[in-house]
Amino acid sequence: MSGKNLFSLIPKVDDLLNNTLIMNILNDFPRVTVVNSIREEINLLREDIKNKNITEENINERLEKLPHLINERIKEKNSFKLKRVINGTGVVIHTNLGRSSIDKDIMENVVNISSNYSNLEFDLEKGKRGSRYSHLEDIISEITGGEAAMVVNNNAAAVMLVLSTLAKDKEVIASRGELIEIGGSFRVPDVMEQSGAILVDVGTTNKTHIWDYERAINEYTSAFLKVHTSNYRILGFTSSVSIEELCELKMKYNIPLIEDLGSGVLIDLSKYGLEYEPTVQESIRKGVDIVTFSGDKLLGGPQAGIIVGKRKYIDEMKKNPLTRAIRVDKFTISALEATLKLYLDEETMLKKVPTINMLTLSLEELEKRANTLYKKLKQEIDDQSMDINIVDEYSEVGGGSLPLEKLSTKCICISLSDLSVARFEKYLRSFEIPIITRVYRDKVYIDMRTIKESEFDTIVEGVQEALSKVKGVL
Ligand SMILES: *Cc1c(COP(=O)(O)O)cnc(C)c1O
């Protein structure tokens, strides 16, 4: 049959609207979505006939699949663009997958606050206008030991606000070895420029000494900035200036010391077998004037930038007009307050803050999970073309935190014989609840550290569907 005649085989929109499958769909979705999806699938078929060598045999196959393809297109059109996914990558603080997830019990507080009115900016005692920054100040001070605190949209905004308040049109001294870039285009020199502060970089890439800082001090110096180079390490012939040394220097000259800690850990992680990461408490105790850190990295809360330190500086920041542009909303405040409350009791926190929980899982627990999922997969999928194993692997902390840390873990490893692993992985990603995995040497890895038991059944379904699709059955 010639190309032209193949076009005549394409059904009309009305014909498809009478198809039983499509008629059922019409009960659940708006007619306009259904009609548009039919048109789009028909156009796609037309394009394929025009551009590809579609044979008569092929076209029948395509025509048979057409209602299903339309069905999938409708579902896709109607689905949310921001979706919940299953993180099988083993990267705990995965910035692309939303960094830290938040426990349902904490979200209850968010639902309660945001589906009702709240005292967001109302002083219940005085019956007058209050400040949204007051709700978190006491608890942050209590946990960190700082005099005062405030919270803004994220840590990038926090650094910007601190510099803009303390150092606009004045000089800030920072080490060259700490002028970092982190993902998502946060670069210390650029943030500095945006804030209006003038960067005076001292030392070299690998070595900075205390006298580098001291030599750079002049009448325009307004602050020292120390940045925790959390996302990389320079190894070998290196030296950086410690917080203690900088504190001594800043006391001598009476110049404030700002520290961007990045990850912002509030507990000593080395107790749980991880590498020691400087805590916020430690910086405050040593005398840093202002510390900034993220709410959704190692703290395990919502996206936020937390500023803690000397009251006189924080009070100035609250008055900075920039604050209005980067203020936090009630969702963030309620989620962060509930998360921070957990930190008052470390035992509870370890269970209830998912990020910390995942980072401190025991190998026994990971192995138990792997066995359960392995059994489920084996039970449901009996297919010669798929090989499933439990393997030893490493997870990552992610979020630019503890870059050298390798966390021993257990993965479900799937290999396929004579089928495309790349397509299999893609089908897992396009599953109703997308399953994000790691592909390495032509095998798919699902890390037990970042998935929950409640997600196992979905994973089994997803693997089944992806296998059928890659075999061309679906
Ligand atoms: C992650 C990070 C930031 C940016 O924090 P966000 O909360 O993503 O805005 C800034 N500085 C350092 C050192 C970081 O690690």
Automatic annotation (TrEMBL):
Its EC number is 2.9.1.1. Pathway: Aminoacyl-tRNA biosynthesis; selenocysteinyl-tRNA(Sec) biosynthesis; selenocysteinyl-tRNA(Sec) from L-seryl-tRNA(Sec) (bacterial route): step 1/1. It is an enzyme of class 2 (transferase). It comes from the Bacteria. It comes from Anaerosalibacter massiliensis. It catalyses: L-seryl-tRNA(Sec) + selenophosphate + H(+) = L-selenocysteinyl-tRNA(Sec) + phosphate. Gene3D superfamilies: 3.90.1150.180, Type I PLP-dependent aspartate aminotransferase-like (Major domain) (3.40.640.10). This is L-seryl-tRNA(Sec) selenium transferase. The modification N6-(pyridoxal phosphate)lysine is found at residue 297. Its cofactor is pyridoxal 5'-phosphate. Belongs to the SelA family. Keywords: Coiled coil, Cytoplasm, Protein biosynthesis, Pyridoxal phosphate, Selenium, Transferase. GO terms for biological process: conversion of seryl-tRNAsec to selenocys-tRNAsec; selenocysteine incorporation. Residues 7-46 form the L-seryl-tRNA selenium transferase N-terminal domain. InterPro entries: PyrdxlP-dep_Trfase, PyrdxlP-dep_Trfase_major, SelA-like, SelA_trans, SelA_trans_N_dom. Its main location: cytoplasm. The gene is selA. GO terms for cellular component: cytoplasm.
